[in-house]
Amino acid sequence: MAGGFHHDLPQTRGVFDIFYRDVPDKGSFVLAAGLAQVVDVLRDFHFSAADIDYLRSLKLYDEDFLQYLANLKLDCTVSAVPEGTPVFPREPLMTVEGPLDQAQLLETVLLNILNHQSLIATKARRITFAAAGRPVMEFGARRAQGPDSAIYGTRAAIIGGAGSTSNVLAAKMFGIPAAGTMAHSWVEAYPSELDAFRAWAKHYPDNAALLVDTYDVLNSGVPNAISVFKELRAAGHKPVGIRIDSGDIARLAKAARRMLDAAGFQDVKITASNALDENVIPALLAQGAPLDNFGIGEKMITSSSSPVLSGVYKLAATRTNGVLKPKIKVSASIEKTTLPGIKQTYRLYTPGTHEAFADVIALADEQLEAPLAVVNSNPLLTSKRIVLKEFDAEPLAAPVPLDQPAPSDVFEIQRYAKGKLSELPIETQRLVNPDTYTVYVTQKLADLQQQLVDEAKQD
Question: pLDDT (tens digit, 9 = 90+) per residue, 393-413?
Answer without folding.
Answer: 999 999 999 999 888 899 999
